[in-house]
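Supplementary material to the annual report.
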Amino acid sequence: MEPATCLRFEGIKRRFGRLRVLTGVSGTVGPGEVLLVHGANGSGKSTLVRILAGLLAQERGTVEYRLDGRALAIDERRRAVGYVAPDLALYEELTAVENLEFFCRLRGVDAGRAPELLDRLGLPHDRLAGALSSGMRQRLRWGWALLDRPRLLLLDEPFQNLDQPGVEQGTAILDEHLAAGGFAVVANPGPLEVPRVASRIDLGG
Amino acid sequence: MSRRASTWAAEAAAVFVKDWRCEYRTRYALNTLGLFAFTTLVVVSVVLGPIGNSLQMATAVLPVILWLIVLFAVTAGLPRIFVAEEETHTATALRLAATPSALFCGKAAYGFTIVTLLEALITPLFLAMLQLSIARPGLLVTALAAGGFGMAVGSTLIAAMVAQARTRSALFAVLLLPVLVPALLFAVQLTRAAIAGEPPGVELRMLLLYDGTLSVAGLMLFPSIWTP
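Predicted assembly:
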């Protein structure tokens, strides 16, 4: 029987010019679980995460995100995922709180969520995003991903540039997310200590 | 207004406010457009002198010059509407958060206010430096508003199309100019009528029709341009 909420992808293929990056990747992840994607640089981890988010089209294969029994269309999927990745940047001319408030308005979330998340992540509200350190920017990406409490988190190198307390905080947030019935796809080049890993995909390299 | 419509309007308004907030802090578009337009205006007025005194010259030459200044200033400054989002990688967050049509509407509104500000800055200077008097000022304002709207919407759509290309600057001009030719022709004719004190004729209706068509086409095409 088909689970009411899950992310399932089958036979994902993608190439850039003559370079074949993904050659038929499949996987499933459901509530309370993490799907861990390994692989060396250039193995296609980020490409897979971008395809799952609906930011890049696959050449072959299917992606289905079922939420409470309903399969989401790609534009709904795009707006229903939390995404942390190196290619995600926020506006350098805006402060941390202005950035999150702006995206709260786009996603229909109460703007009060922005300062709440910044406090949780230990980020200054009124500093321009362009003046944040690389670790602080990574924390801000986490804040962006958690804005509307999405069920599915797509995390590409989620602990990049974070110090040890930042890594511990990110792991704790992920653990809370999973305990609340959320699920996640986590892509990382090296070994990673994350909770509740249900399945792994090794893209080699 | 339904909840869906109010959410859509709130999204468009948020994009508009965000763009102006960023512009206020960098002043990139205003400086680029303003400096380009002002420099061209000074050169034109020094070379041509007070040719507005002659009605024949005023109606034949000056409307074309005014609109060419606006056109080239727009070409220099408005591609940033989307190019900056791609270059700074903020486009990813926008793609994941914004309704495409609301994003287009917010960006086009921002572009329109930029063009309107530019026109408000250079038109009085243009009239003063070339000693040009306008027989029907209301018609001139209408021509500037309707022509500026068409330019802003056209520029927004083309900027979204070229933002992901490598040769975006050249591509922007190549694609934009043919799209804006009708708006330019109608706007020049209307400006000419405003100077000569003639009624607007069919050009005003054609320009408004062009603006409406371009807006609908933009709203329909933008989602497929913006998303993969």
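The CA atoms of residues 28 and 59 of chain B lie 34 Å apart.
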